[in-house]
Design a protein that fits this description.
The chain has 252 residues and is of the alpha+beta class. The protein is 32% helix and 15% strand.
């Protein structure tokens, strides 16, 4: 991506989050197949997508990559994103690992009471202090508005019970100390040798000159705690059920 690309324009138009490809062999064309055009269109604003053969992942791993893309504002319908995940899995799957196809499930819509219960848990357990659903919550962590369309119930439950110890580069936090001694924490958006841009803990976009900072530290560890000891088995089941229903048109 052009380093001079304006940060404001990123938020107005919608950032295309960065797939972490180690791109090589620029002359090699991508394999034909359903999803190829969607992959090129959605990802080419940030990346040269002539090849992605250096990455081999399972469907679950590719799903997490696309999940991170969406949390950063990737532009595409759910069908297009599903096409991208299927294309990446088929053409750049991990060798020797059985690929699990995306489940086709006709889920029964949640009742009003189930929706209310799930939304209550989402708030009571502090999820919205880092995450966002619709117009509510924080930008610090990945957006959950369409989590049910991108993750299975098993994946959602696993993320709650045993969160990854590290976070992907696009979701890392940052801690700054300004020249007047104030500490600022937030989500790292981008930085170079001279400046750093973050989304702070109050969901405000902020920019700092590194020369004016006493401290600049990127936080790579995941602050999300495991929720096994913070809710009952029934609460966990209710929350997972609710989150799996979030496909873009619900609000907490």
């Amino acid at each position: 991506m052009n380093r001079k690309y304006r940060l404001k324009r990123i938020f107005i138009i919608g950032p295309i989050a960065c797939l972490t490809f180690a791109v090589s062999g620029q002359g090699q064309s991508l394999p034909e197949g359903k999803g190829r055009a969607d992959f090129q269109r959605i990802c080419s604003s940030c990346h040269s997508v002539a090849t992605a053969t250096s990455q081999r992942m399972t469907r679950g791993e590719w799903t997490r990559v696309v999940d991170d893309m969406v949390s950063r504002g990737a532009q595409g319908t759910q069908d297009e994103l599903n096409n991208v995940m299927a294309y990446l899995t088929e053409n750049f799957g991990k060798a020797g690992v059985a690929q699990v196809p995306a489940p086709t499930v006709n889920e029964k819509p949640l009742s009003g009471a189930e929706v209310a219960r799930g939304a209550e848990l989402l708030t009571a357990k502090g999820c919205l202090s880092c995450h966002r659903v619709g117009d509510t919550g924080s930008y610090l962590g990945p957006d959950l508005t369409t989590i049910g369309a991108r993750r299975s119930q098993e994946e959602i439950r696993g993320a709650l019970v045993s969160p990854n110890k590290d976070v992907t580069p696009e979701n890392r936090g940052v801690q700054l100390t300004t020249s007047d001694g104030k500490t600022v924490t937030g989500r790292l958006l981008r930085h170079d040798g001279f400046s750093v841009q973050i989304m702070d803990s109050h969901s405000q976009l902020r920019s700092f000159q590194k020369a004016n900072l006493r401290k600049f530290a990127i936080v790579t560890t995941n602050p999300m705690p495991p929720y096994t000891n913070q809710m009952s088995a029934q609460e966990l089941a209710d929350l997972v059920h609710y989150m799996s229903s979030l496909k873009g048109d619900q609000k907490p």
